[in-house]
Amino acid sequence: MSTGTEAPHTGSPRAGVVGLGMIGGGVAVSLARSGRIPAVHDIRPDAVKDLAGVPEQLSSAAEVASASDVVLVAVVDADQARAVLGGKDGLLAGAHPGLVVVLLSTVAVPVVHELAQSCARAGVDLLDCGVTPGDKAAENGMVAIVGGETEVVERAMPVLRDFAKKVVHCGPLGTGMATKIARNVITYGCWTVVNEAAALARSAGVEPETLITVVDSADPRGATLFSWLREQIADNARIRALVPQVATLLDKDLAAAQDLAAHVDLPVPVVDIARANGPRTLAFDIPALDTPQDNR
């Protein structure tokens, strides 16, 4: 990671960024800080005004494609991604052989395959690349979660490394997006769990701040979040033998939560689901990974 001001990279690959919101703008700033000054474009004429080290934007996505070897697309949704790629002045209109488009926007996996087909018809390679956390984009602080062919990832890697603190190649096309979606499920799911747990505690007179203090003290950095999954992956025989005991504790504790909620007429759907799915959650029989499907 670069922290100073370096001379611009003089060799390939040249970088481009289309979409200069919080993530795209931050990525452009990080690239510039790393010395890889990107060609940029956004539909807002003043989008680069507060982006340190980022040059004046080009007039279209097509111009960015012509000036770049790797273009990072950071728009809001699938429709905007389609327009940026295939519009009259889109990336594919200015594409050249060897161009790599890296989709940073979170979209459904079938959309990734759809966009990859559009790119392939124009001789362009597509990578799906979820990024997180978005608020660290301008600090070379994100993780890039990449899906695509190894050879294409290697061509894009110098650019990816210039804006991300870590690049994780998850597998074939679509796996980066699937991993980002799964990461988001954990985030939003945990928010839901915490909200329900805080309401349950408060129903008994416990302030949310007290709950936060207890959990932070007992489980610093959320160490237990992946603890059971890690044991499943390792197929830990000692822990596997404890499943009946853990299942009994899980059912007992969640039954107590339901009982507390019933006394104050508080809906606890997450508790209900967690109790009903306890055996499935604790099972050590993780399904084998099938050959990735082309979910078009």
Description:
The chain is an alpha/beta fold and 296 residues long. It has two domains: 15-173, NAD(P)-binding Rossmann-like Domain (Rossmann fold), CATH 3.40.50.720; 180-282, N-(1-d-carboxylethyl)-l-norvaline Dehydrogenase, domain 2. 48% of the residues lie in helices and 12% in strands. α10 runs antiparallel to α11. The two termini are 36 Å apart.
Main attributes of the structure:
single chain, 296 residues, alpha/beta, Rossmann fold, N-(1-d-carboxylethyl)-l-norvaline Dehydrogenase, domain 2, 2 domains, 7-stranded mixed sheet, 7 strands, elongated, disordered N terminus
Secondary structure: elements and pairs:
Layout: E1 15-18, H1 22-33, E2 39-41, H2 61-66, E3 70-73, H3 78-86, E4 100-103, H4 109-121, E5 125-132, E6 142-147, H5 150-163, E7 164-171, H6 175-203, H7 208-218, H8 227-234, H9 237-241, H10 243-263, H11 269-276, H12 278-282
Parallel strand pairs: 1-2, 1-3, 3-4, 4-5, 6-7
Antiparallel strand pairs: 5-6
Helix pairs in contact: 3-4, 10-11
